[in-house]
Design a protein that fits this description.
The protein is α+β, with helices and mostly antiparallel strands and 203 residues long. It has one domain. The chain is built from six helices and six strands, in the order ααββββααββαα. The protein has a six-stranded antiparallel beta sheet. α2 crosses α5.
Length: 203
């Protein structure tokens, strides 16, 4: 990629990151992907396809758009004191963006809990039959299952490389990936367990 063009991409990414969190839920994203092959158009098309289906089950999670040179997407989270738990739907643009990513751009869906070692982390990640352990176990039959990573904040990752797909197929494959991931997060009970763990008793 030419140096001037790369600089333009980084400037666009900085503006997108500065606008994160503004506007309606999953409004038209302004992401530009700093990857060897520019996939920003396909990324925008994917988020537009999944915008409506992803709204209704996530109304009680805090939502935030974000964009960096390594990862672009949406974060959904809930707080308990200073601790936070939730999940991310997005695209890894670099191989070190998310554990397990090898051939970016990759569609990624992952659960996170922070800080590591907190009471919330122990409850949702470490304990036997925890919410994250169940999510990982329940996804084993998927072509791209969630993989357990208990050593850091990103605790369960599902990912799929889209690098070799033609542009016309990219949004369809990515949207399907995210909808299947949401199905496991929701029907498998992960979202409900996060809600319960972050809801004050008596509220």
């Amino acid at each position: 990629m030419a140096e001037g063009k790369a600089g333009d991409y980084l400037a666009i990414l900085a503006r997108a990151a500065g606008a994160a969190g503004t506007g309606g839920l999953m409004g038209p994203p302004r992401f530009e992907a700093a990857v060897d092959v520019d996939r920003s158009r396909e990324i925008r098309a994917t988020f537009e396809r999944i915008r409506r289906p992803l709204q209704w089950p996530l109304e009680d999670f805090r939502r935030k758009k974000f964009a960096t040179t390594r990862l672009v997407g949406y974060r959904f989270s809930r707080m308990r004191g200073a601790a936070e738990a939730g999940f991310v739907y997005g695209f890894a643009l670099k191989s070190d963006a998310v554990p397990g990513v090898r051939e970016p751009p990759e569609a990624v869906a992952y659960a996170f809990v922070r800080p590591v070692g907190s009471a919330l982390f122990q409850e949702l990640v470490i304990r036997p039959r925890s919410a994250v352990r169940r999510l990982v176990a329940d996804s084993r039959t998927l072509g791209h299952p969630f993989v357990f990573h208990p050593e850091g904040e990103v605790v369960a990752v599902r990912h799929r490389s889209l690098a070799r797909l033609p542009p016309e197929l990219f949004p369809f494959a990515a949207a399907d990936f995210f909808m299947i991931a949401q199905g496991r997060l929701r029907t498998g009970g992960f979202m409900d367990r996060v809600r319960k763990a972050t809801t004050r008793r008596g509220s």
